[in-house]
């Protein structure tokens, strides 16, 4: 079963990487690439979800956690399927350095001894995420807290 999941994801990745940067005429879903449309879709998601409270295991407007928000955003805005947890999401795609981040890249943080956090980079050192304290919001990687907690980034 895991082998089939890996094959499916490989096919998904190759489809995403070769997709045009504009809307796909068949399904009207923008590709996940470094285009103004990627950033626009992420900003629109922020507008729709801003302030929705954090709730561990949540997947709706009544409350959502960080990995659930990333999963829902990439699925609804770009048609990209991701696993549910931060631990699983950090294994997806390929590693990318902080200095090479592009809109749509996943950014991961070590927020505690065993606690991890994930968000989606939108550009200009900012990322979209579901924060435990303020719910869905945009934060800066240059913020002293996030700068200290930054761990790794992945490109899907």
Any overview of this molecule?
With 156 residues, the chain is of the alpha+beta class. The chain has a single domain, classed as Alpha-Beta Complex (endopeptidase fold (from Nostoc punctiforme)), CATH 3.90.1720. 35% of the residues lie in helices and 24% in strands. It is built from five helices and eight strands, in the order H-H-E-E-H-H-E-E-E-E-E-H-E. The protein has a six-stranded antiparallel sheet with strand order 3-8-4-5-6-7. A two-stranded antiparallel sheet has the order 1-2. A hairpin with a 3-residue loop joins strand 6 and strand 7.
| Helix fraction bin | 25-40%
CATH topology: endopeptidase fold (from Nostoc punctiforme)
Q: What average pLDDT do the residues reach?
A: 84
Strand order of the largest sheet: 3-8-4-5-6-7
Can you name the CATH architecture? Alpha-Beta Complex
Query: What is the CATH homologous superfamily assignment?
Result: endopeptidase domain like (from Nostoc punctiforme)
Class inferred from helices and paired strands? alpha+beta
SSE string, helix = H, strand = E? Answer: HHEEHHEEEEEHE
How far apart lie the N and C ends? Answer: 21 Å
Q: Please report the first level of CATH classification, the CATH class.
A: Alpha Beta
Show unreliable segments. Answer: 1-29
Question: How many strand segments?
Answer: 8
Subcellular location: Membrane
Domain NlpC/P60: 36-156
Family: Belongs to the peptidase C40 family.
Organism: Shewanella halifaxensis (strain HAW-EB4)
């Amino acid at each position: 079963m895991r082998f089939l999941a890996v094959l499916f994801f490989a096919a998904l990745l190759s489809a995403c990487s070769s997709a045009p940067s504009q809307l796909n005429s068949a399904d009207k879903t923008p590709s996940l690439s470094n285009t103004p449309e990627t950033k626009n879709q992420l900003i629109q998601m922020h507008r729709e979800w801003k302030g929705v409270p954090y709730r561990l295991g949540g997947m709706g407007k009544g409350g959502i956690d960080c990995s659930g928000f990333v999963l829902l955003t990439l699925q609804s805005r770009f048609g990209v399927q991701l696993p549910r947890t931060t631990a699983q999401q950090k294994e997806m795609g390929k590693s990318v350095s902080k200095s090479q981040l592009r809109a749509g890249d996943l950014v991961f943080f070590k927020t505690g001894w065993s606690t991890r956090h994930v968000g989606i980079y939108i550009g200009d050192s900012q990322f979209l995420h579901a924060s435990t304290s303020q719910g869905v919001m945009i934060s800066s990687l240059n913020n002293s807290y996030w700068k200290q907690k930054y761990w790794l980034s992945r490109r899907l």
